[in-house]
Write a structure and sequence with these properties.
Elements: H1 18-31, H2 35-53, H3 61-72, H4 79-86
Helix pairs in contact: 1-2
């Protein structure tokens, strides 16, 4: 009795202009990746973004009411973030000195 192996990988074929291939190859080389790895990762990342953007959030009426209360409340400063935003950017340090 032979068991049929389930294929884990599925081929994907695309026709692309030379200019697109050249661009992808340059970017993949900069990342030290193969074209296939680079394109697969980019496609999966783009698909995840689309799915996250179109995700439906469900909540109870009570949960929604609490959510709206929080959104309607005045903003409060977060001390660590304020401190970071007050620091000069690394490229701004030393300006005006000299």
């Amino acid at each position: 009795m032979s068991a049929t192996a389930h294929r884990k990988d599925h081929p994907l074929s695309m026709r692309m202009p030379d200019s697109d291939i050249a661009l992808i190859d340059r970017a993949a080389a900069l990342r030290g990746r193969s074209r296939t790895d680079f394109v697969r990762d980019a496609a999966v990342r783009a698909a995840e973004e689309v799915l996250m953007e179109s995700g439906l959030v469900r909540m109870s009426e009570e949960g929604f009411a609490e959510f709206m209360v929080v959104l309607s409340a005045p903003a409060t400063a977060v001390a660590p973030m304020v401190e970071i935003l007050r620091r000069p950017a690394p490229w701004e340090q030393g300006k005006g000195q000299g």
